Amino acid sequence: MKDLSSPSRPFSPKLTEEDKTLDLTLRPKTWQDYIGQEKVKKNIQIIIQAAKKRGEPIEHLLFYGGSGLGKTTISHIIAKELDTNIRVIAGPVIEKIGDLAAILTNLNEGDVLFIDEFHRLNRLIEEFIYPALEDFKLNLILGKGPMARTMELKLPRFTLIGATTRLALLSAPLRNRFGATFQLDYYKKEDIEKIIQRSSRLLRIEIEPDAVKIITQCSRFTPRTANRLLKRVRDFAQVEGKGKITKDIAEKALKFLEIDELGLESGDRKILEVIIKKFEGGPVGLQTLSAATSEEEDTILDIYEPYLMQLGFIERTPRGRTATKLAYQHLGIKCKNSQKLL
Ligand code: ADE
User: Fold this and answer.
1) Residue 270: active-site member
2) Which domains, ranges and CATH numbers included, belong to the chain?
3) How many Cα atoms are found within 13 Å in the side-chain-facing hemisphere of 175?
4) For 195-213, what is each residue's pLDDT tens digit?
5) Active site residue 21
6) Residues with Cβ within 6 A of ligand 1?
């Protein structure tokens, strides 16, 4: 699988070993502990209750939204609520039809199969998935040419949960196979504050309310980033301070990490600077931007761009990305041709 970026960066899309341990400690395991995404939560609770009443597995679900917003966490809670097993796999790992057959035939009735990076599923696999989702059957082709035979495998009734950061890359027929689709959006400021307070309690670290606010401000309104930053700041508090996360310690730690007051790190600033300085504010195409910044196109699309657009710092036009007036202001760069600015 392609390595999207260095895991040492606070906003890296990649789950590191440290994240996995962090996830195990901090990840909420019940709806009660899960903060935010209220509408999605309510909708799923209804789907679960109704399916339980009917004594059936729940419909297949599709989650889309940025990385670190809780797609995996919610899926684990769903499996726990249903009292079933969950099998977690990344889309690109399923390379051949045999891989799919092995996964599906190993499921038990009612199990949840969670496929992450669903948009990266091999196209050839897609057509085998349709009967598996609709009729819980897998049609295998044995042999080649005139000797080829098809064999139908009956599958247990399972629930597929697909997760993607790029809904538009899924074909319409594939999207239509899901009973419900949910978008996970950035969290509210108050929710990130609560998440940081909860995580601090679990990590047994004292934190001042002002420090919670500062970390929230830099969290990109994403729980995974908030928790990663909290951990970095905690290390700083233990080495440079007296173990408590004060406002002063939080500010110093974030400055040390080169994260500014809006949560932008050096990679974000580089993208803005390249658009502004090398391409006179844009428009610049994705490929060119990727080459000029040495960032993977996927990383720009999944990590940098959504937050920069959310802040109103860049806009996507048919001819490419453009930096806005707000971006110039944030970087303290004067625009030579202010007429051009959005
Ligand atoms: N940790 C990560 N995501 C969380 C959430 N939504 N609620 C509570 N803690 C979390």
Assistant:
1) no
2) 37-184 (3.40.50.300), 189-256 (1.10.8.60), 266-341 (1.10.10.10)
3) 13
4) 999 999 999 999 999 999 9
5) no
6) 26-28, 33-36, 70, 73, 195, 198, 223, 227
